[in-house]
Give the backbone structure.
Amino acid sequence: MAGRFPSPPVAWSVQSAAVGHLVIRHGCPLLGESSDNLDNGPVKAYVGVTDGEWYRFLAARPGLNEVNFWRPSSALAFRALSPGEPFFFKTHHPHNRVVGGGFFSGFAQLPVSEAWELLGQDNGLPSLEQMRERISRYRHQPIAAGEDPVIGCIFVRDTRFFPVGEEAGPPPRFASNIVQGKTYNLATDPDARYFEGLVFRLLGHRVEVDFTQPWHRPGPVYGDPRLAPRRLGQGTFKAAVHEAYRERCAITGSRIRPALQAAHILPLPKGGEHRLDNGLLLRSDVHTMFDRGYLGVNLDYELMVSPRLRTDFGDGDEFYAHTGRTITVPERIADRPNREFLGWHTTNVFKAS
């Protein structure tokens, strides 16, 4: 039974990680980017040119939170923003209006099937088949049967679309020949006041914002949790955890992707958030045992196995044989499980006796 577990290394390099079709390049603000690696300069904003059908479909969806502002090609990573900075949607000329926006959550290069699995209709289309057709139209070439093209996924959380007739005017100095988008430095741009108004519209209230100061610090910024940069959207959280753990269960080392799940250490109902340091990638059965307290991880990232696993079920030898083994964790320290969250799980969930 003990031979079922490989001996995974403690940390994995994620500087240029390719997992199936999932590619995350660091050195730019991508999935799960930690505060240690963020650009701590002044706030930037990005205005992306959107497809009219995409935004109208999403604007009509109630309860929208996170969307995928996808690109049909995955050739270029999105490097313009750090997580938590504002991202706005602008229509093409001649409409040329800002129709909404949100806060950048992360970027990934994903097969279209995985993008659909993560966000479904929040990709901006009614079905996966229609999304494939739209990609084919933009690429000016058909997608072969069985082909799963890789697209660029820009995740935007806390999304809001402005009511029809209340769209904002065109951004300043946004040339009509810009086809993807433009970045603005809000600390030095002479038109920062324009974006201040847009941020207030996203939040639904005014806050005292100093765009010369970075937002890239822990906790809610300016009293609003939507401005907390470590907070990810749900889809981004799942993709970030899969990427950081290199598609490998942190406890068993299993690489069977359909069985792997992004687990929260501190559950959302208990005040947890979609943060990379609140996540573990676990095989589905291991996830269940972790959530029910039969497995735990101590502050040194060592596996703990409850004696209740044997007394309740008369089983668990494969886990007892590895008690005390260091689990696999991400390479970057800031991305590893937060010890405060692990302590909460040990105290409140783990069955120590």
In short: Residues 1-39, 216-224 have pLDDT under 50 and may be disordered. Residues 263 and 280 are 5 Å apart (CA to CA). The longest strand covers residues 98-111.
